[in-house]
Write a structure and sequence with these properties.
The protein is an alpha/beta fold. It has helices at 6-18, 34-43, 60-66, 80-92, 138-143, 155-168, 173-192, and strands spanning 22-28, 48-50, 98-104, 109-117, 123-127, 147-151, 200-201. It is built from 7 helices and 7 strands; from the N terminus they run αβαβααβββαβααβ. It has one domain (6-201): P-loop containing nucleotide triphosphate hydrolases (Rossmann fold). The longest helix has 20 residues, at 173-192. The protein is globular, with a radius of gyration of 16 Å.
Length: 202
C-alpha cells in the first residue's frame, strides 16, 4: 500500500487534536484514486474506519426498474439519503457498532452490513463522487464532513485507470471505451465543476 504523505498525515492529526471524532471526505472524478487515498489514510491511524459512498449504489434490479442501469454511477443512481442517514448516525457517535454497506466490484452490487464501525473509531474516512454537489441531499452530506479533499489527476492517467478497471471487471476494450465516453466522462465533468469548493486540492 502507498504510504500517506507526511503533510496529509499531519493535516488529519491536527483535525483529531481538535475533536473526538473526525469525518473526512475524499472526492474526485472516476479513476482519480479516491479509494487508494482513503485506504492510505485509514492505514496511517489507529481507530479509523473506511466507509465508501459506493455502498449506496442502487442495486441493478432497481436501476433496471428506473431505466438507469445503462448509466450506473450517475448521481441519481445512488441512495443519497441513505448515505446521509448513515453519516448522521456516525456523527452522533452511538454506543453500538454501526454497520455500513460496501460495494463489491466482483459482483458490481452493494452488500449491506459489510463494514463495522466501532464506537471508539475516532477517524471515519469516506469517499465518493458527489460529496461537493449542489443537488439535495449532497449539501447536507457535505455539512457532516469536517473536510473534503479533492483528488485532481491528469486526464490521460485517469482514463487509463478507468479503462483498465472496466476491462478487469469484465468489459471488452470496446465496451470499456464506450462506457467511459457515455457515462464516466459526463459524471467527471459534473464532479470537476465542484472542485473549487474543496478544503484541499491534491
Amino acid at each position: 500500500m502507498t504510504p500517506l504523505p507526511p503533510d496529509l498525515a499531519a493535516r488529519v492529526a491536527a483535525l483529531l487534536d481538535r475533536q473526538h471524532r473526525v469525518v473526512l471526505g475524499i472526492t474526485g472524478a472516476p479513476g482519480a484514486g479516491k479509494s487508494t487515498l482513503a485506504e492510505a489514510v485509514v492505514a496511517a491511524f489507529d481507530a479509523a474506519a473506511y466507509v465508501p459512498a459506493d455502498g449506496f449504489h442502487l442495486a441493478d434490479v432497481e436501476l433496471a426498474r428506473l431505466g438507469r442501469l445503462d448509466r450506473k454511477g450517475a448521481i441519481d443512481t445512488f441512495d443519497g439519503y441513505g448515505y446521509l442517514a448513515l453519516l448522521q448516525r456516525l456523527r452522533a457517535q452511538p454506543s453500538h457498532v454501526v454497520y455500513a454497506p460496501a460495494f463489491h466490484r466482483d459482483l458490481e452490487q452493494p452488500i449491506a452490513g459489510s463494514i463495522p464501525v466501532a464506537p471508539d473509531a475516532r477517524l471515519i474516512v469516506t469517499e465518493g463522487n458527489y460529496l461537493l454537489d449542489d443537488d439535495p441531499p449532497w449539501p447536507a452530506i457535505r455539512d457532516l464532513l469536517d473536510e473534503v479533499w479533492f483528488l485532481d489527476v491528469p486526464h490521460a492517467e485517469r482514463l487509463r485507470r478507468l479503462l483498465k478497471r472496466h476491462i478487469q471487471f469484465g468489459k471488452s476494450a470496446e465496451q470499456a471505451q464506450a462506457w467511459v465516453r457515455a457515462v464516466d466522462e459526463p459524471n467527471a465533468a459534473r464532479i470537476q465543476a465542484c472542485r473549487h469548493k474543496a478544503d484541499l486540492l491534491i
